[in-house]
Amino acid sequence: MFARRAQSFWGNQQGSALIEGALMVPLLIAFFFGVFEFSWFFYQQHLVAIGLHDAASYLARSSDPCNPTSRAWKAEQEQAKKLATSGSISGGPARVRGWTSEMVALHCTKIDNPIETNGLSRYRGSSIYTVTVSTKVTNPSLGFLGLLKLRSPIISASYSQRAIEPR
User: Fold this and answer.
1) Cα distance between residue 146 and residue 71, in whole Å
2) pLDDT above 80 (res 60)
3) Model confidence over 2-37: pLDDT tens digits?
4) Which of 48, 22, 25, 26 is nearest to 147 (CA)?
5) How far apart are CA 100 and CA 86, in angstroms?
6) Is residue 104 classed exposed, middle or buried when 0-12, 13-18 and 19+ CB atoms within 10 A define those classes?
7) Which of 63, 51, 30 is CA-nearest to residue 96?
8) Which residues 6+ apart lie within 8 Å of 141 measured at CB?
9) Is the dihedral of CA 92, 95, 98, 103 positive or negative?
10) Domain residue spans in the chain?
11) Residue 62 region by backbone torsions, left for phi larger than 0, else alpha for psi between -120 and 50, else beta
């Protein structure tokens, strides 16, 4: 009896649209939420990149860039970390949920600026540094990846900018 009913459904074209819809609607919903989740990820990655750019620019334009003996250097580092994560040197709500100033790493590298045979240095300024600001933060997922039992991706970014000490 079951085989006869299955045979009648198989040949009936009136219910085919319902079956096609029942198969396609969940796939379309999953596709929509997947696109939305990845768009969210790229937006969060963009916010992190903007924050790192702001922090590196702030440090490169500070009064005494890359001088650990300076009294202002420690305070400028903390302000740069707050600027990266919140958009303000005084702190505030995070640009990306879960991103804290402790996750931001700052590094200065001195660039060789030798004095040429004509008595002038290759680059203007007494000392030249590269300020690098980097971070790793777990993307705050919207939840769709969790439904699929996938881990949230990790945003790993860095930004470098040249800092020139005045003569």
Assistant:
1) 46
2) yes
3) 666 666 666 666 677 778 888 899 999 988 988 998
4) 26
5) 9
6) buried
7) 51
8) 37, 40, 41, 152
9) negative
10) 16-164
11) beta
Q: How many residues does the chain have?
A: 167
Please give the structure tokens belonging to residue 94: 């995070």
pLDDT tens across 68-108, in order? 888 888 889 999 999 999 999 998 999 999 999 999 999 99
